[in-house]
Write a sequence for this structure.
């Protein structure tokens, strides 16, 4: 399971780079932060899903799997953001918190729900 987690974390590093690159590119074009972040999230989570399907879990990327992955990761992002707003947390703390929470919870959700082995 350790090697699987390391592969998942490696995809997570690339996913973070994609997210940040898209965010800054869209925001530099004059778009507000909310839309820039939402755009970056959708592109990065899509990259993450397909990369994890192929390289981490060696599973089949289906529409159903994509939708439950997208829904879970989106709900988690919104929840962390809402909690951060409620607690008036600095944005860097929100970013770090979401990165850690999504890495751990996303791994287990992907392993046991999204790409679970068929019996």
């Amino acid at each position: 399971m350790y090697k699987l987690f390391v592969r998942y974390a490696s995809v997570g590093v690339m996913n973070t780079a994609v997210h940040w690159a898209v965010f800054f590119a869209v925001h530099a074009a004059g778009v507000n932060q909310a839309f820039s972040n939402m755009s970056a999230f959708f592109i990065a989570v899509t990259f993450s899903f397909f990369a994890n399907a192929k390289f981490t879990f060696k599973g089949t990327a289906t529409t159903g799997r994509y939708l439950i992955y997208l829904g879970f990761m989106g709900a988690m992002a919104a929840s962390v953001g809402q909690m951060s707003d409620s607690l008036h947390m600095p944005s860097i703390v929100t970013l770090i918190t979401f990165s850690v929470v999504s890495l751990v919870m996303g791994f287990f959700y992907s392993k046991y729900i999204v790409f679970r082995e068929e019996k």
